[in-house]
Amino acid sequence: MLIIPVDRKPDWRRPPLVTILLVLVNLLIYFGIQWGERSHMEPAAEYYLAESRLPEFEFLAYARFLENQNKPEAGAAMRKGLERWRQIRARSELAAARDGKKTSLEDYQSLIERWYVLDADGKFGALMQQPKPPLLGTVDDDELALWKEQREHYLSIRSRSFTERYSLIPAQAGERPFTLLTHMFLHASVEHVLGNMVFLAMVGYAVEILLGGGWYLLFYLLSGLLSAGFYLLFEGDSMVLSLGASGAISGVMGMYTVLYGLRKIRFFYWFLFYFDFFKAPALIMLPIWVGKEAFDLLFGQPSNTNYYAHIGGLLGGALLALIYRLLARGKLAQAHASYVSTGDDDKLLRGLQQSAYAALARLDFERARRDFSSLVSKTLAQQKTPQPDWLLQLFNLSKGTPSAPAFHKSAQMLLSLPKGRFDEQKIHQVYLDYVASAEPRPLLSDEQSLAVARRFAMNGQPQTAAAILQILLVTARQHQQLPQLIQFIARGFMTAGRHDQAQHYQKLLQQQFPLSEESRWISSPGNRY
């Protein structure tokens, strides 16, 4: 069964750079380095199993070694492997004598895993470098010479590959701790690397956008380490090579469930011949994914899949995300607000708008205020401008609490609307209501006050602009745009037919800012009102 989130597409205005980098690094390592090593093991395996008599000496020696290490079951398996090798060798030699058929590695497929475990065991290999290893038991000089000759030839064929050097072998993790990190960038096949990278690309970007690139990369690497640690906890004496990014990717999936929490996410599932989509809270998927891996581990068919690593990654990633969620709650909430599905948000905004106006119709002003406040905040989170009527409704509904942030913010946004976006008379009335009611005082900066005054001077409300000017002459006396504002006010009064007021502000301009460009302009003949 396959279950993966397919909630939304990446926002390429904010590309998931770390996810892209991780995918590229994994692909480059596999196709740039590992690809050429695909057949590296085959010649050595073929010589060892099909051509030489090394298994006759070393399978039994390795069985003794394992038994000395208090691993009787593994030792017994090697003894059975030796019997199996003898049977295959006798059958192959008979076929070769009868049909001239050459013995090949295909005949020994059932023994390749035992050969590899023996071959990868560094401690055993070190003991076998002695002139006459005690593990060989009683052998005569001719047999010993034959073993040495064949082993020397085998070692000349068998050179350690890049993949083997940097893959994780649990029993050797203490001697090679760097493989706890390097193994998560290696893969066993094209299908292995492509499958992992598809999962990483589908889930990674949604986690990266919430954590940010730095935290995401750190948590990705830590998840891989926790995944490996969980595997070592249960299989620490294993000599089976482990590699792949799936442990770290499982960590990303664990992070996904905790970071998105109870938000409903769209998932794709595939079971046998049936597939479909469903929506569920992200957090519900954590026990489902862990349960699936545990079921496959306990009851599934034998597989090369490292279920321990998957479970460890899921749990480790979830733990890291939980710590982040507790320590960076505000930052995470902000990231959630800025990364949302456009379709879902449009539907949510339509629902809020309908609810807000319905509450107004039934005179439920508190509910309407909350809904209009949500409409404004969610629209701002999308980096869009809220509809002017939403702002006006929120402003009017917030008048009962003139010290509330919503009252100040809605007024500021209304007064900042571009010309032509909303009725200018309504904007003028908003200003009058705001300065009359705001507590402890109107929260307009000098720049905002200057822009509002200029707006009113040009739109037929020069008296209000003049009142704002009186304040600015105290709070922003040196502002370089004040002469221009006085000139606009003078023009506004002139347009309104109030010539005496127009002349008053021309004189004020010459008195207060005699060196300004505007003052020199009105001093020119023909420019006085």
UniProtKB/TrEMBL annotation:
UniProt similarity note: Belongs to the peptidase S54 family.
Species whose genome carries this gene: Collimonas pratensis
Residue span, Peptidase S54 rhomboid domain: 178-324
Keyword Membrane: yes
Keywords: Hydrolase, Membrane, Transmembrane, Transmembrane helix
Membrane topology: Multi-pass membrane protein
The protein's name in its UniProt record: Rhomboid family protein
Segments traversing the membrane: 12-33, 240-260, 267-288, 308-327
Chief location bin: membrane
Localization annotation: Membrane
Domain of life: Bacteria
InterPro entries: Peptidase_S54_rhomboid_dom (IPR022764), Rhomboid-like_sf (IPR035952), Rhomboid_protease_S54 (IPR050925)
Keyword field contains Repressor: no
Gene3D superfamilies: Rhomboid-like (1.20.1540.10)
